[in-house]
């Protein structure tokens, strides 16, 4: 494009907007005023009546006071005005929860037109191609489902491998059908839109696949980094690979994995947001333990159990579990399916002088969905059983599999003593200090400056040295 064309393009665009020449993006009419000798001011107003205004009512005064506290109101949105702009300009048009800036700008310019009826030729042609591809995938799903039914009705003795071969073949065909279901809907714009808006049905395989792919892209990498960075393996488990997404919030605030939290925030149990990516119901147990409890007698560290809940039913459609509701009478009456509480929540605390404590949250899946005896767990681990808790022994004893993980850290702060006093935890007055290790080398004889000035003549210089003959410091 030549330089004159680049210069003339903005002028032509402004003239078209003023004349209303663009039909796809109508603009507001340009305000016209008559000629005058003085410029107009933005703050001047036009008086339409000369009558005395009435006294505002009490409701009007209250609304005015609320408006003064909340600040100036945002201007009324004009959906057909802005196609491009900054983040602040687009945030005035639509909610930030609707996705990226490009999508918000597109929704602002298309009005109330349904998403699948957007008047873009390329978009509609692409939807036709995707529709044909989906029909082919659906036909394959029908054919594979019929094959599975025939194989289920067949006698296992007709196969060379017998029943084992039959079950293996059935499992392979079912996995192939699940992949076809994902491929049939993976490119559908409506499916992607529902997933981005958080409205996807996790009982459907395509939404579980999208959620798993999103988690594997970043969040799982962060969890694996924390596991390696804070030596969770091998301090707590010899080997661990997370396969489910676990997030944690304290009093509504999101907690990044490994964050150092104030003891006042961690005084109450958190809420876990857990997401599994395979279909079916399963039972979980949740363990919260402190991996860095100082032991002054052995000059080492031990572990302490802070929370234990078991027999928690879970499926892909569920996402939130408030740990503070487990074990309460109201929760047992209203939502008995939450699970059983074995060991209640013990606030996270770290005594003065000790290094940061790693508070780890593990989600363990039951083998064959077999429930555990919560009364037996309470007898084993509540009270004195909290100290010296071993996650590896707990896993092996009850045939559990660790599948989810998150963590936070705790240090001594200005609220730790009050939290320990409220919950009857002793040791708030204990301060740990590093033990001084004396050198095993023999004392070195004085040399140089010190050796020359050890006579009484240089008594005024003795304060600058530690090696005076016959004197101990």
UniProtKB/TrEMBL annotation:
Cross-referenced Pfam families: PBP
Principal location listed in the UniProt entry: mitochondrion
One of the record's GO cellular component terms: mitochondrion
Amino acid composition bias (Low complexity), ranges on this chain: 46-61
Location of this chain's protein in the cell: Mitochondrion
Domain of life: Eukaryota
Chain intervals for the UniProt region annotation (Disordered): 1-61
Role this protein plays: Component of the mitochondrial ribosome (mitoribosome), a dedicated translation machinery responsible for the synthesis of mitochondrial genome-encoded proteins, including at least some of the essential transmembrane subunits of the mitochondrial respiratory chain. The mitoribosomes are attached to the mitochondrial inner membrane and translation products are cotranslationally integrated into the membrane.
PANTHER family in UniProt: PHOSPHATIDYLETHANOLAMINE-BINDING PROTEIN (PTHR11362), PHOSPHATIDYLETHANOLAMINE-BINDING PROTEIN 4 (PTHR11362:SF82)
Record-stated family: Belongs to the phosphatidylethanolamine-binding protein family. Mitochondrion-specific ribosomal protein mL38 subfamily.
Protein name: Large ribosomal subunit protein mL38
Lineage of the organism: Eukaryota, Fungi, Dikarya, Ascomycota, Pezizomycotina
């Amino acid at each position: 494009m030549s330089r004159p064309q680049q210069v003339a393009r903005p002028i032509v665009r402004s003239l078209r907007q003023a004349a209303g020449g663009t039909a796809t993006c109508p603009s507001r009419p340009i305000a016209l005023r008559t000629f005058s000798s003085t410029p107009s001011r933005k703050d001047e107003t036009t008086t339409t009546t000369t009558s005395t205004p009435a006294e505002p009512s009490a409701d009007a005064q209250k609304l005015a006071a609320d408006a003064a506290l909340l600040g100036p109101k945002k201007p009324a949105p004009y959906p057909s005005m802005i196609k491009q702009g900054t983040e602040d300009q687009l945030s005035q048009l639509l909610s930030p929860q609707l996705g990226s800036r490009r999508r918000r700008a597109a929704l602002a310019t298309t009005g109330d037109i349904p998403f699948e009826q957007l008047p873009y030729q390329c978009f509609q042609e692409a939807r036709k191609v995707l529709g044909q591809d989906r029909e082919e995938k659906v036909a394959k799903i029908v054919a594979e489902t019929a094959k599975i039914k025939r194989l289920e009705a067949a006698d296992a003795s007709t196969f060379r491998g017998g029943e084992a071969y039959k079950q293996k073949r059935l499992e392979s065909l079912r996995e192939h059908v699940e992949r076809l279901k994902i491929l049939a809907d993976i490119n559908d714009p409506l499916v992607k839109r529902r997933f981005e808006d958080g409205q996807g049905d996790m009982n459907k395989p395509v939404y579980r696949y999208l959620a798993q792919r999103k988690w594997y892209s970043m969040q799982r990498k962060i969890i694996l980094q924390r596991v390696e960075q804070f030596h969770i393996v091998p301090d707590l488990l010899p080997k661990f690979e997370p396969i489910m997404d676990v997030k944690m919030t304290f009093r509504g605030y999101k907690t990044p994995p490994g964050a150092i939290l104030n003891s006042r925030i961690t005084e109450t149990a958190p809420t876990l947001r857990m997401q599994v990516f395979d279909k079916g119901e399963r039972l979980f147990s949740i363990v919260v333990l402190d991996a860095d409890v100082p032991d002054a007698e052995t000059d080492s560290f031990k572990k302490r159990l802070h929370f234990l809940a078991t027999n928690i039913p879970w499926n892909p459609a569920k996402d939130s579990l408030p740990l503070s509701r487990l074990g309460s009478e109201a929760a047992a009456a209203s939502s008995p399916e939450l699970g059983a509480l074995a060991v209640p929540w013990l606030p996270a605390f770290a005594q003065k002088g000790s290094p940061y404590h790693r508070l780890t949250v593990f989600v363990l899946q039951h083998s064959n969905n077999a429930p555990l005896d919560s009364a037996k767990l309470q007898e084993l681990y509540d009270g004195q059983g909290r100290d010296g808790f071993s996650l590896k022994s707990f896993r092996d004893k009850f045939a559990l599999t660790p599948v989810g993980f998150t963590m936070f850290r705790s240090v001594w702060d200005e609220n730790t003593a009050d939290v320990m006093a409220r919950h009857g935890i002793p040791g708030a007055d204990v301060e740990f200090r590093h033990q001084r290790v004396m050198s095993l080398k023999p004392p070195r004889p004085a040399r140089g400056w010190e050796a020359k000035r050890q006579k009484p003549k240089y008594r005024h210089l003795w304060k600058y040295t530690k090696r005076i003959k016959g004197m101990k410091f």
